[in-house]
Specification:
The chain has 15 helices and six strands. The protein is mainly alpha-helical and 460 residues long. It is a multi-pass membrane protein.
Length: 460
């Protein structure tokens, strides 16, 4: 269904580009008013964009979860293959995006917007056909519980809340609760253990929660501190397409005489870093690490995420140092009050921070995908993958909030804020150092929760 919506959105987007503008020849005057398209065409365009967003929102996590479901986590060899699947999935996404940026941007700028939108539509339609051709060969998980996962988890919290004032002497335990013996997992969130017991006034026909349901609720609850501490990575992620690009726009972007690269094109170095590093990680690092750790994935998912968070902080350190040099160069050449002038410093100085962040993506984003897929109840795996995507989304909101607060705190009274439109008077370096500090705090908190985390499956 999500694929159909995705294709429909891309098709309508192509149609909006094909439809002739009623302005016609008036556009030769370059008058924005006379060249404006019809209102219906604008509505169709934005409706198409929202439809693509909805389709992608359903397609991306569900397709990835379904792909990972094809591997048996109980089989040692397939367990290794499943971990490798997440690496190559992200490799494919980044490789496709990098190639698409180069090809479609050229087609849209130089040939036709309709063709630029039409090619992805055709590609998605072909992908859907190929996917359907394999229908008879796919594995499907069999539902073993009549109650849905949301109902099971909610019922545990409701039962624990109802029994929070009761003591063991006030409760009549059923057969399963009498057999319940606390283990390592059950020592966490012990207040949920009360959901295992039924008060003496339990009505006939009602039931108490099972041990499996309580442990499932605990597993979901254990994800919360990991998710929260990973938000610092989302804050760093938000800088790549914003301030990194703004820095590059002020620097010397000449590649050859008469040609300057667009500042946003430096983001391709992230994709290139990912394309280069993932094969090395999957084919060289993981087999070597397996020898020492005996873990099918080489290192645990949380270890992988932690390395990525550390590398993201390192990329911000490099970004802060480069920005300090850029400001120093602007002062040396008396360009502080000349925001439109090019700072005589090569834009290639920014490449290391992009490359390091691409390396951080290989560890953190792929690790988050595998972690939230593996550690949620089976029926919630697609939602688990959506949860990993929310780290990026909410991280961007937190970044915007920080910027708004700092803008008000540092601006006004004739002073330039840290984010002044004149970057030569701004202090992005201060902001970067602040993020480094927040990242360090988040990293320490992440290590604390990661050390006490108990995996709810044999695969780690």
């Amino acid at each position: 269904m999500a694929s159909v919506l995705y294709i429909l959105g891309l098709g309508l987007l192509t149609l909006s580009a094909i439809l002739p503008s009623p302005a016609g020849s008036h556009c030769e005057t370059n008058d924005i008013t006379t060249c404006s398209p019809a209102q219906s065409q604008v509505v169709l365009f934005f409706f198409s964009l929202y439809l693509v967003a909805v389709g992608q929102g359903g397609h991306k996590p569900c397709t990835q979860a379904f792909g990972a479901d094809q591997f048996d986590g109980q089989d040692p060899e397939e367990c290794k293959a499943k971990s490798s699947f997440f690496n190559w999935w992200y490799f494919g996404v980044c490789a496709g995006a990098t190639v698409t940026i180069f090809i479609l941007s050229y087609i849209q700028d130089n040939l036709s917007w309709a063709l630029g939108f039409g090619i992805p539509c055709i590609a998605m339609a072909i992908a859907l056909v190929v996917f359907l051709l394999g229908t008879t060969t796919y594995r499907y998980s069999i539902k073993q519980n009549e109650k849905g996962p949301f109902v099971r988890i909610t019922s545990v919290f409701v039962a624990a809340f109802r029994n929070w004032r009761t003591t063991p002497s006030d409760m009549a335990s059923d057969e399963e609760s009498r057999e319940f013996l606390p283990d390592q997992s059950s020592e966490q969130f012990k207040f949920l253990n009360k959901a295992l017991f039924a008060p003496k006034y339990l009505e006939k026909g009602d039931s108490v929660c099972s041990k499996a349901e309580v442990e499932e609720a605990k597993a979901v609850l254990r994800l919360v501190p990991i998710w929260v501490t990973c938000l610092v990575y989302g804050i760093v992620y938000a800088q790549v397409g914003t301030f990194y690009t703004k820095q590059g726009a002020t620097m010397d972007r000449t590649v050859v005489s008469g040609y300057k690269i667009p500042p946003a094109s430096l983001q391709c170095f992230i994709g290139l870093a990912i394309i280069m590093i993932i094969p090395i990680y999957d084919r060289i690092f993981v087999p070597i690490a397996r020898v020492f750790t005996r873990n099918p994935s080489g290192i645990t998912m949380l270890q992988r995420i932690g390395v990525g968070i550390f590398l993201s902080a390192l990329s911000m350190v490099v970004a802060a140092l480069v920005e300090m040099k850029r400001l120093k160069t602007a002062r040396e050449y008396d360009l502080v009050d000349k925001p439109s002038a090019t700072v005589p410093m090569s834009v290639w100085w920014l490449v290391p921070q992009y490359f390091i962040f691409g390396l951080a993506d290989v560890f953190t984003l792929v690790g988050l995908q595998e972690f939230f897929y593996d550690q949620v109840p089976t029926e919630l795996r697609s939602i688990g993958l959506a949860l990993y995507l929310s780290v990026i989304g909410i991280g961007s909101f937190l970044s915007s909030f920080l910027i708004s607060v700092i803008e008000k705190a540092t601006g006004g009274d004739g002073h330039s804020s840290w984010f002044s439109n004149n970057l030569n008077r701004a202090h992005l370096d201060y902001f970067y150092w602040l993020i480094v500090g927040l990242n360090a705090i988040g990293f320490v908190a992440f290590l604390h929760f990661a050390r006490s985390y108990i995996y709810n499956r044999s695969t780690m």
